[in-house]
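Here's what a typical entry looks like (DUF883 domain-containing protein):
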Amino acid sequence: MSKLSDNIEKARAASRERLELAKEKAGEGTGIALEKMSESKQRAATLLGDGKVKAAEGVAATKKIAKTAASKSEETITKNPLAVVAGGLALGALIGALLPKSKTETKYVGGAGKKINNSAKKAYGAAKKAGQEQIDNLGLSKDSVQDQIKDLLGKVAEAAKSAAEAASDAVKSDKSGK
């Protein structure tokens, strides 16, 4: 029995030794895992900070472009108010001409609609005549007014394109920074 007791005691000692070794290795593994998690957390925080900075830069660039476009539009409106009015009238007439009449509109507003339409045509004719007189008084030609309107629309389109490109660049740089 003493041999059996010795064997049992040796087995217990070996088991304790293995248990202590397993605890030690588990502790080392936990430390490594915690270190890796900490590094990952730091990288994520850095990337998030970089993303916020890039987004703020993109917003600032877009705001700057929008302010520039608004300033240029205001300047154009101030310098050429008649051209803007003429452009607005032309745009309104175009939209009105493109919208189809609905059955409901014809049913409920039919007769009144004709009267309104005739009144609107008279008002449009009077506005056109008055506008033409103003343009003639200012010594402007049809071509110069059209050129100013084209220039204004070109500047608006250019501002919109610049804003879109800035936004696109901000998104691209944000994606490439990840």
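The CA atoms of residues 58 and 169 lie 8 Å apart.

More examples are in the samples folder.
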